[in-house]
Design brief:
It is built from twelve helices and no strands.
Length: about 300
C-alpha cells in the first residue's frame, strides 16, 4: 500500500509542478515577447495541451491518493472504494478537508484551460496553480506542528520548486523547437527569456534552499538522526540531487546562456541537453519527496 501511495504522491507532485511552472513560463514569454504568440501559435497550443494533461494527471492522482488514504484508514484494500470510509477521510480529517479545496482547484484549472485564452487567462491559471501547489503542504508533515509557521515554510518551498522544476519542460520545448526549426521569433524569444529565466531562477532557487533548510530544522532533531534514520537518509539523497541540479543550472547560466543571448546559436543544442538532464534530476527529487512524506520525521530514534 505504501508503494502505491508513493507512486500517487509522485504523480501528484510532478503534475502539480508542471501545472504551475509551464503556464508561468508562458506568461513570461507573453509579457516579454508580446509578438511571439502571433508569430508562433504552436507554442501556445503546446503550453495549453501540456498544462491540460498535467491537470488531468493531477486530478486522477489526487483521487487515487484519496482512495489510498481511505484504504490505509480502513487497513484494507477494499476500503479504498468504500463510500463511508472515503467520506470519513474527506470530512473528518484535516487532509480530507484540504483535499476538497485541492480537488476543486484542479477542476477550476481544467475549466480555465479549456475555456479561456489570452495573457489574462494565463495569469489566472498561474494564480490558481500556485494555490493548488501550496495546498499540498497540508498533505504532509506540515500539519504535525501547531501554528502556521511550518505550513508557510512548506508552501513557499513547494511554490519555489514548482516555479523552477515545473518550468523546465516549457524551457526544453522552446529550446528544442528553436534548434529543430529556427525562426526569427523563436531565436528572439530564446535570447530574451534566458536572461530573465536566470534572474528569476536565482531568487527562486535561493527561496527553495532557505525554506529547505528551515524545513529540515523543524523535522530533523540532530545530525545523528539525519544519518541514523530512514527519513534522514532519504533527505540526504534529496539534498545531493538538489545540489547536482543547481550545479547543472549554474553551469547553464554561466557558460551557455550568455553565448546564446549574444547571438551564438550553436550552444542551444547543448543547453537543451542540459535542461533534459535537469528534468531527469527533478523527477528523482520529486520521487525522494514522495517517499519522505511517508516516513516519520527524524525527531527521535
Amino acid at each position: 500500500m505504501e508503494a502505491a501511495l508513493a507512486v500517487a504522491r509522485l504523480l501528484q507532485f510532478a503534475a502539480a509542478m508542471v501545472l504551475l511552472g509551464t503556464p508561468a513560463f508562458a506568461l513570461g514569454v507573453a509579457l516579454r515577447c508580446p509578438d511571439f504568440a502571433a508569430a508562433e501559435p504552436a507554442f501556445g497550443r503546446w503550453v495549453r495541451r501540456a498544462s491540460l494533461v498535467a491537470a488531468l494527471v493531477s486530478l486522477a492522482s489526487a483521487a487515487l491518493w484519496l482512495d489510498l488514504e481511505a484504504a490505509a484508514m480502513g487497513d484494507a484494500w477494499s476500503e479504498a472504494l468504500n463510500r463511508d470510509t472515503v467520506g470519513a477521510v474527506l470530512f473528518d480529517t484535516v487532509f480530507g478537508r484540504v483535499w476538497l479545496w485541492h480537488l476543486g482547484l484542479e477542476a477550476a484549472l481544467i475549466v480555465c484551460l479549456l475555456a479561456l485564452r489570452g495573457t489574462g487567462a494565463l495569469g489566472l491559471i498561474v494564480a490558481l496553480a500556485a494555490a493548488h501547489v501550496a495546498s499540498l503542504a497540508w498533505a504532509g508533515h506540515g500539519v504535525m506542528r501547531p501554528g502556521a509557521t511550518l505550513l508557510t515554510v512548506l508552501s513557499l518551498h513547494l511554490l519555489a520548486g514548482g516555479l523552477w522544476l515545473g518550468s523546465l519542460p516549457a524551457l526544453f520545448h522552446l529550446l528544442t523547437r528553436a534548434r529543430a526549426a529556427p525562426s526569427a521569433a523563436r531565436d528572439r524569444a530564446v535570447r530574451i527569456m534566458l536572461p530573465l529565466y536566470s534572474r528569476v531562477g536565482y531568487g527562486v532557487v535561493s527561496l527553495l534552499v532557505l525554506t529547505g533548510i528551515a524545513n529540515s530544522v523543524y523535522l530533523v532533531a540532530s545530525a545523528r538522526l539525519l544519518f541514523g534514520t530512514a527519513y534522514g537518509r532519504v533527505l540526504i539523497l534529496k539534498l545531493v540531487l538538489v545540489t547536482a541540479t543547481i550545479a547543472v543550472a549554474l553551469s547553464n547560466r554561466i557558460v551557455l546562456a550568455p553565448r546564446i543571448a549574444g547571438g551564438h546559436g550553436a550552444p542551444v543544442a547543448a543547453l537543451a541537453r542540459r535542461v533534459a538532464l535537469e528534468q531527469a534530476l527533478a523527477l528523482l527529487i520529486l520521487a525522494a519527496v514522495s517517499v519522505l512524506g511517508l516516513l516519520p520525521p527524524a525527531l527521535q530514534q
